[in-house]
Amino acid sequence: MTTDNIVEPAAAIPAATDATPAESTILTNAPVLTDDKVVAETLKDASTGDHKEATFSKEAAAVPKDQQKNVVIIGGSCCAVSSMLTAKTILPKTHRLIVIEKHSHFHYMFAFPRATVISGWENELFVPYTKMFESPEKGEVVQALAVSMTKTHVQLDREVPGFGNQIEYEYLIYATGSRHPEPGNLNDCDTKESAIARLREYQEKIKKSTKVLIVGGGAVGMELATEIREHFPEKEVTLVHSRDRYMPIYLPTMSKKCFKTMEKFGVKQIMGDRVIIPEGGFKDDFQMIKVKTKNGLEIECDYQVLCTGMTPQSDVLKTLAPKAVDPKTGLVMCKPTLQIEDDEFPNIYTCGDVANLNVMKTGGAAWGQADLCVRNIAKMIDSKKKSDASGKQVLHEKLGKYKPIAPQIMLYFGVAWGICQLKLFGFLFATDWKFLIGRFFSYNIHATRAWLWLNTPMSKETADL
């Protein structure tokens, strides 16, 4: 298997100790960011245009729930959390947020690559939505699947107490995200129990394997490869990436550092080539097979993990506004204000992975986009109270326009090694300098912050909720 586009690994980094994740001093000495700091750091570069905020009197009398208008968010991931935190301060009491999400718990996917390999802490990665809102007047989370839309309602796949099988909306944020292959995404696991069980299935598969093939060199593929090599140094790991460099939207130095670090971990890397997936996919029978690539290579392996492909979940929006969905990519086309690209529906916004924005699909980017959606909706609500001299309703303040943040990311390569691209003091750079990035190390990839976002601080008592 020695050709020009295969890189045999150098001496591997020593294996991790037998300590459990929580016992790793390298990780627990790093400060865990609080929710306020995370929000501030996530949004500080996310300019939403030169516009004033809509302002509403905090002294306004409470509005009964049955008289409130709904701002519906389809999708309960980072976009929903960001929307909730922003709405706390700027959404008037005449409106409340309704999050439609089929999962019973928030999935902290950033830690899935590690949880695919290391056991004993999976429960920390699934946070209950039960306390996301302080009261029904502030908002509610509806566990259901949105199946279609009209101009006024979202149709659900089931009956929900207090709502029936449809939810009325005045404004809507379409944030359904995209489907990724497991284990980077557990889209089909609707309960905490099923999601934890699925992660443990992957842990057992990796333990049973001897030669692992990882298809795809994105963040999930690279992190998974290094986690396996660190905790199971006796296993052979080969990563195949279709491009000639990793993370092409980031600085070239980011790719070089990823390459060298994985080489140190002992990951065999094949660049600029594609795996030929057999008809019907790979079988999880742990039989040693030879997998072929487009360039004619053969890779011996007994377990294969797919970490490629992203399918935007735009089918529900197509039932109402098919013109707003790109027929080639399936992404939702939107204006700079993040309103969907269909003038018939100025009250519908989009953000996150499903939006056709030329930015890296990351949680930080989605967070800033959702923040802008809520701010613009607040302005539209405010404009309904105002009119010009002729009595015509007008939008007095311009809606904010989305300005992409600089591409920033943190990659975890094992429990004590990382690579990041950051923007500090106006400069964008990639580094693996431990003195700088060590503060971001945490055995659970800072899953603790998600519990704070959703108003249920993590503890021994709450971790299994």
TrEMBL record:
Pfam families: Pyr_redox_2. InterPro entries: FAD/NAD-bd_sf, FAD/NAD-binding_dom. SUPFAM superfamilies: FAD/NAD(P)-binding domain. GO terms for molecular function: electron-transferring-flavoprotein dehydrogenase activity; flavin adenine dinucleotide binding. Keywords: Membrane, Transmembrane, Transmembrane helix. GO terms for cellular component: cytoplasm. The chain crosses the membrane at residues 409-430. Residues 70-365 form the FAD/NAD(P)-binding domain. This is FAD/NAD(P)-binding domain-containing protein. It comes from Actinomortierella ambigua.
